[in-house]
Amino acid sequence: MDFENDLNPAQYQAVTAAGGPLLVIAGAGSGKTRTIVYRLARLVQQGVDPASILLLTFTRKASQEMLSRAAMLLGHGGDILPGVCGGTFHAFAYAALRRHHQTLGFPQGFTVIDRADADELIGRVKDDLGLGKGDKSFPKKSHVAELIGKSRNKECRVADIISRESFHLLPHADDLERMADGYAAAKAAHHLMDYDDLLFLLERLLVEHEDVREFYRRRFTHIMVDEYQDTNRVQARLITLLAPHTGNVMAVGDDAQSIYAFRGATVDNILAFPRIFPGTAVIKLEQNYRSTQPILELTNAILQNAGEKYDKTLFSTRTDGPKPELLRPFSDITQARMAVVKIRELARKWPLHEIAVLFRAGYQSYALEVELGKANIPFQKYGGIKFSEAAHIKDVLAYPRVVANPLDPAAWTRCLSFVPKIGPKTALRLMEAVRLGDQAAIDKAAKKHPQLAELFAFLDSLRAMPPHPGPILERAIAHHAPHLMEKYPDDYPRRLTGLEQLQQIASGYSSLDALLADMTLESPDEDKRKAREDHLVLSTVHSSKGLEWSAVLLLDLVDERFPSRHALTRDEDLEEERRLLYVACTRARDYLGLFVPETLYNRQAGVCSPVQPSLFVRELPASLCTMVRESLSGRPVPQSDSPDFAPPRPLSGSAAAPPSGPITACEPAPPRTDPSLLGYCRHKVFGRGKIIARLEGGKCRVNFPGFGPKMILSDYLEME
DNA sequence: TTTACGGCAATTTTT
DNA sequence: TTGCCGTAAA
Q: Which of the nucleotides in strand B have any atom less than 7 Å away from a protein CB atom?
């Protein structure tokens, strides 16, 4: 290993830094992973026992990649560096809690629940408290779950979250607090833990049990934390608690890439690190190995207007390359077609899997997905449903879950839902009967439903088996197969294949609990990146973190979409959107294309309305990109003049026809008396009404039942 | 109490 | 488009 040659001076400094706290600010594409891997390898080479190194990462994939690369450096072949304890905070917390579960008063262990299970439980709490019945203004259970989760991650009251970002729910604040309490109580009663509990409970374990804390502080002499900018407050406290006596805590991150504030991550952690660990050496990695200089100039400009940060300016030795392009389709609908044309062009230069299309939110790629289908371009979407979230997987896992924890309500309802005539209510009663050991009630129900007796017999037989996940899963799948066929008649074979994969995964485990926890903590959503050969990549910006492509296209860079309209009111939210854009643009190696549609199609109104380019695009110096307009044929046309962000002129009047094709997209709007514009509409005060006529000045005559005809500005109407 | 159906709203990001 | 929720029928 030739550290000096393989690394640049800053990287070398980070890799060879002596003991003590170390903070590495690693700009995008600056060889962050390389630095961690080399440091890991060097420590081991210097005789540090791998088992005394703790490597905390954001995803399991990241940790595996680092460990196997370090092993390679050390000449261990393709193996993963043996002994190093690596994984996510949640997975580490789970392992620790499991080890010490008696200490914490969970003699029977516990089950980790995912977001869907939490939603369900919260729904039940809502019913129990009799809240929200017939009240349309009461938030849905998943929304409530979100609020509760946020309050825990940010460590404030639910009411605070509400008053900060959902003030329309303030009338329900008390009820929502009660639900948060009820949810916590329900989890305790059923031996369940959600993601947040894992972290808080680990903290409690370490604070209250000095012996346990000392155990870990001695066991790990070196702690390395990746993506430190995405840690929340508990996670930072956990690091402090775990910090070894040697003081060897290394945090790596980039404050400019902090994009998880919505779930409690705070940039403060990385900014405060040197204060919390006095004597911290701070090293900045600023040389970028990924992108061309023109792309970096744009990304640096995006950061220019950011608030508090570690100042850094990325530079590259790759001075060549085209400027980023600003692509201007007529609308978000024609954007999809224009993107396909662009993708075809890029695909002449790079394989498809070197091209990615990124967007702010999952739904923004729907139109493109349709066009890609028509154009026969294969693609792979990231951020979609994960393997372990697929319904059939959860269905099958419900059986072993009942075996592992007979108090698990979500698991019971799932199993029992396959017995005809048994719904949520009966399922709940049966679970109670099981809990109380009320054999009479169970027998009675079993007599009534023959299939129920079968199910109980089956579950008992599972319980009687030795606790090996492999065989248990095999039986569960066999038992479930008929239901699968019934539930997914056309999709049956594909899902069965998925279950066989699950069986494979399960047989690699020796403990049922560990399998179940892993399935909720880190779904093996595989290395489909490399596995699927030549697929275009579609991804949300969040899921693109840490990845890179030769060419990157970014969709919908207009106000309300990116930045998202939810982020427009508060400054800190807007700052996060800016960093999100920064992350997106820094994924590109050679080509970056930014789509800025001139109009957005409004489905309800059936028209396209003009939009402003994204705030972040507007503030960019025009010289940093090239503008390309959409021609009538859908082909891009380079513009000789520099970008100009005067608000786009309305195509005709206040509305244009829906863009069904490139040509019709700019046909003149129909005359104002066109009957197609005389449909039904809604008004905040008068309710539903019928438009009788369109008048000058954007006004309409509308007939509201019960109120009679009124003259209304169409801005105040919502079309149906 | 279950199940089927239809209306209706919403649609950010996720360990 | 989906998916949630309330309603009505069985």
A: 1-3, 11-15
